[in-house]
Automatic annotation (TrEMBL):
Record flagged with keyword Hydrolase: yes
Lineage: Bacteria, Bacillati, Bacillota, Bacilli, Bacillales
Similarity comment: family membership: Belongs to the glycosyl hydrolase 51 family.
GO MF term (any one): alpha-L-arabinofuranosidase activity
Designated name of the protein: non-reducing end alpha-L-arabinofuranosidase
Catalytic activity: Hydrolysis of terminal non-reducing alpha-L-arabinofuranoside residues in alpha-L-arabinosides
């Protein structure tokens, strides 16, 4: 098959935020224990943090990471998670089941971030916590002279951590949340909490909860009107869904789910822009979207409980998931600079970018994808025109069946191109082009319209495997790995294999 990709270098849409390649940790199942913290294990450091996981995360280049939840945080008291490790209370994990050791708390999270070089993003407990709890948490992290700053120093950390990103609430509209609120109540409470957080430190960047998949314009409007002047981000969570991961019937709905993501992001950006332009007094600073939870969920029965249905212990992320994730990156790159952050669910275990057991760290195809896009697909987003055959596909397959029939919407089929491409100009002036071929069976001969001023050869990175369900395991950790070729003669044509992801980098001539 054939397609044409034309790069319009002069049409730059905006700065791509490096944070769109961000990650997420939550206290659910085996995600934190032993995924990130493993006590006295030979693989852990003096704080119990897994050194091999830190090393892999550093190599991955995690730009930002959200913690501790999610639903978990709305029943979490941060004070349980600081102080001498062995004296911390063991509590029930109120949301996900099982026990919470509280061994991975604020100091461990922030130390982990510093070692990895990731920006921390902390979500406070709006559900069952108080405003004072939240402010004291900020002060524990960032204060200099106060009682909570002294508590931090007594716990071994002299310098303030300087945490800038603070989320206020999580899916507050959901009846599964501890502390569900209506739009008016949430908007008022958020404005109130945000006001005091900003009074404490005007430089903090605050995130307010946006509506379910961007579908409730009224919710988003009320939040922006009431609290927009304090907010740097409005959050949106979108989950695709998989019912039978091994079935080839699911391939196209999953590969095309990013079309649904882009639609929902555009919808929320539209609400944001319309609301801001109607407001008498605009905030005077940009408010960006934060897609701070996203993935393809597979509802797998796991008798262990403990949030097990989300853990996907038997389904490591595979090439199909990488095709999906690349499409989500493309949507966010096209929507730069309106999308300022995203946090994949999760970095470790449970749909993870890495699968961590007591004695191994396995890098999934997603790991390689995040790493490469984070390195190359940054800078200024440029317009790319794609002429490609399309396919009529219903997306997403089913949206969140756990939310009940009324929300389990089956979408009309949409016609979407097999080839999806985006471009970026890096700080060094090089041109980067990312291409996803979503066709299951057919390769494509691409005709590339590369602007003048770039060499005719490129560095070419590709991720491909004949089997779309191929994944990496501790027995076969390198089954799906990328290939990097330097100085490949392109001369405006390129052949890409079926179901593959290919990135090109052209230096200035
Ligand atoms: O996948 C994790 C959970 O999903 C988060 O805790 C919650 O915010 C979302 O519904």
């Amino acid at each position: 098959m054939k397609a044409i990709i034309t790069i319009r270098e002069e049409e730059r849409t905006g700065e791509i935020s490096p944070y769109i390649y961000g990650q997420y940790f939550e206290h659910l199942g085996n995600c934190m224990y032993p995924g990130v913290w493993d006590g006295d294990s030979a693989r852990s450091d003096g704080q119990g943090l897994r050194k091999d996981v830190i090393e892999a995360a550093r190599e991955l280049g995690v730009p930002v990471i959200r913690w501790p939840g999610g639903c978990y945080v709305d029943l979490y008291d941060w004070k349980d998670g600081v102080g001498p490790s062995e004296q911390r209370p063991v509590r029930p994990n109120w949301h996900w089941g099982g026990q919470e050791l509280n061994r991975f708390g604020t100091d461990e999270f922030l130390s982990w971030c510093e070692q990895v070089g990731a920006e921390p993003y902390v979500n406070v407990n709006l559900g069952t916590g108080t405003l004072v709890d939240a402010l004291r948490w900020i002060d524990y992290c960032n204060g200099a002279e106060t009682a909570d700053a002294k508590w931090r120093k007594d716990n071994g950390r002299e310098e303030p951590y300087g945490v800038r990103l603070w989320g206020i609430g999580n899916e507050t509209w959901g009846d599964w949340e501890a502390g569900q609120l209506g739009a008016d109540e949430y908007a008022a409470k958020l404005a109130n909490w945000a006001q005091f957080a900003k009074k404490y430190d005007s430089q903090l960047q605050l995130l307010g909860v946006g509506s379910y998949e961007g579908n409730d314009e009224e919710w988003d409007r009320k939040v922006i009107e009431a609290a927009g002047k304090y907010l740097s981000y409005l959050t949106i969570h979108i989950y695709g869904c998989s019912v039978d991961r091994e079935s080839s019937d699911e391939y196209y709905p999953i590969a095309f789910t990013p079309v649904y993501f882009e639609n929902q992001l555009r919808k929320m950006i539209g609400t944001l822009e319309t609301t801001l332009s109607r407001m008498n007094k605009k905030p005077g600073h940009p408010i960006r979207l934060s897609l701070d939870e996203w993935n393809i969920r597979h509802y797998e029965v796991d008798p262990s409980g403990n949030g097990g249905y989300l853990l996907n212990r038997n389904s490591p992320r595979n090439l199909q998931d990488a095709i999906f994730a690349a499409g989500v990156f493309h949507a966010m790159i096209r929507l730069s600079p309106h999308v300022g952050m995203a946090n994949y669910v999760f970095l470790v275990n449970g749909n993870g970018v890495m699968n961590v057991t007591e004695d191994a760290v396995v890098k999934t195809p997603l790991y390689h994808l995040f790493k490469q896009y984070g390195q190359w697909m940054t800078g200024k987003s440029v317009s790319v025109e794609v002429q490609s055959p399309s396919r009529l596909t219903p997306v997403p397959l089913v949206s969140n069946p756990e939310y009940g029939e009324e929300l389990a919407r089956k979408h009309q089929p949409v016609s979407s191109p097999y080839i999806d491409a985006v471009g970026a100009i890096g700080e060094d002036g090089s041109l980067r082009v990312a291409i996803v071929n979503r066709h299951l069976e057919s390769g494509f001969d691409l005709s590339l319209g590369i602007p003048e001023g770039y060499g005719s050869s490129a560095a070419v990175w590709s991720l491909h495997h004949d089997d779309i369900h191929a994944s990496n395991t501790s027995e076969a950790p390198e089954r799906v790995v990328p290939v990097l070729r330097m100085g490949v003669s392109i001369d405006n044509t390129l052949t890409v294999p079926a179901h593959s992801i290919v990135l090109l980098r052209f230096e200035k001539a």
